[in-house]
Amino acid sequence: MTAAGQIARTWLSVEPLDSLMVRDGRRFAAGDASVAAGVAPAPSTFGGVVTCVYGGEVDRIVGPVAHLYDTPMFPMPVDLVETGDLARGRRLSRLPLLPRPEHEISDLDPDPAEQGAPPRLSHALAGEGDPVSGWLSGEGMAAWLSLDALPPGEIDTEAWARWAEAALWHPEPHVGIARDAASGRVLDGMFYRAGHLRPVEGLRFVLGCDHRTPPRDIAATVLPLGGRSRMASVTPATAAAAPFPTAPEDFPGGRLVVYLATPALVPQVRWVPPGTSARLCGLAVAGSQAVATASPEDPGTTSRLMWAVPAGSLYYLRFDSASEAKDWADRFHGGLLPGLPRSENPIVTAGFGTCLTGRW
């Protein structure tokens, strides 16, 4: 039972039974030259699954976290890069975070003339390289969070082979036609191509569901995931399925890095934990990510396109003390970024901004 004011967490395992077809919300019109590109499913895609399983919305969702068989996999942090070329061999490195020279400028710097502007970011990643694509295992993620086990500099290739996975799905082209809803006849010129994603064998997603009232018992079921006719097997999972590596035990100097395991719908890219002494010292973001949502009952009038900070992005914070940093990590490691009101955007608690905490 869930006592008043307490939150109970249940876990679900979602295994795709077919290719994934989730579009990013950009305009698409059928025709012989049109292609609809599929993207990785956003947290809100799984929110629809949770609503079906429990017969209504839960308090919040954490994840999803991809699993390859029983190994949790996380999007690569953006400070991991490749250098060199294919002929001479590619080298893997973790970039260091260093103080910024006074003369250095960034598009994330505030306008000095703006009243109440946030302070200039004091640190930035130093070095060059191409961001590493792919996924990092839970063991590799724990090493990354600790900093000691995966420090800045060149990465040991044997450890990397144990930790990294190049891809969890592969592009799969599909073709289709558009039909008139009333007659069922094929419309002229409405032949199109769609890029689906084919999951690798053994892929599933694990997500946590927080409840303020006792959740109902559920059984294994099959439900839609993403595009029409794409189905997934949904089964209850035990608390032992919690996919997150543990946070470091201490944060020297109050230095704490927040890693985004899922995209975050923050109102400003320069997010800072509210109600704390934390200062944003550095920020590593690889572009932006489009997130589209729509109600399956009336997608035409409920569709919405938003921009998110993508998974793998990093927020480098400094708290006034190591103890405050540790307290903050204890509260939010493996949870959602705080300070994103549901009243302003109801889907922010549907898994967006699932975060882990580490050292820098």
How far apart are the first and last residues' alpha carbons, in Å?
40 Å
Oligomer: single chain
Order of helices and strands: EEHEEEEEEEEHEHEEEEEEEEEHEEHE
In the predicted model, the low-confidence regions spanning at least 5 consecutive residues are none
Helix content: 10-25%
- Beta-strand residue fraction: 35-45%
Main sheet properties: 8 strands, antiparallel
Number of helices: 5
Average of pLDDT = 85
- What gross morphology would you assign? globular
Question: How many extended strands?
Answer: 23
What structural category do the secondary elements indicate?
mainly beta
Spatial strand arrangement across the major sheet: 12-10-4-3-15-1-17-16
What does this entry look like structurally?
This protein is mainly β and 360 residues long. It has five helices and 23 strands. The protein has helices spanning 43-54, 138-146, 157-163, 299-302, 322-332, and strands at 8-16, 35-37, 60-68, 71-75, 80-85, 89-94, 97-99, 123-125, 130-131, 135-137, 153-154, 164-165, 169-179, 186-199, 203-211, 221-224, 231-237, 255-260, 279-284, 289-293, 304-308, 314-318, 355-358. The strands form six sheets. Strands 12-10-4-3-15-1-17-16 form an eight-stranded antiparallel beta sheet. A four-stranded antiparallel beta sheet has the order 9-5-6-11, with no helix packed on it. It is globular. The mean pLDDT is 85.
Write the layout of secondary structure elements.
Elements: E1 8-16, E2 35-37, H1 43-54, E3 60-68, E4 71-75, E5 80-85, E6 89-94, E7 97-99, E8 123-125, E9 130-131, E10 135-137, H2 138-146, E11 153-154, H3 157-163, E12 164-165, E13 169-179, E14 186-199, E15 203-211, E16 221-224, E17 231-237, E18 255-260, E19 279-284, E20 289-293, H4 299-302, E21 304-308, E22 314-318, H5 322-332, E23 355-358
Parallel strand pairs: 2-14
Antiparallel strand pairs: 1-15, 1-17, 3-4, 3-15, 4-10, 5-6, 5-9, 6-11, 7-8, 10-12, 13-14, 16-17, 18-22, 18-23, 19-22, 20-21
Helix pairs in contact: 2-3
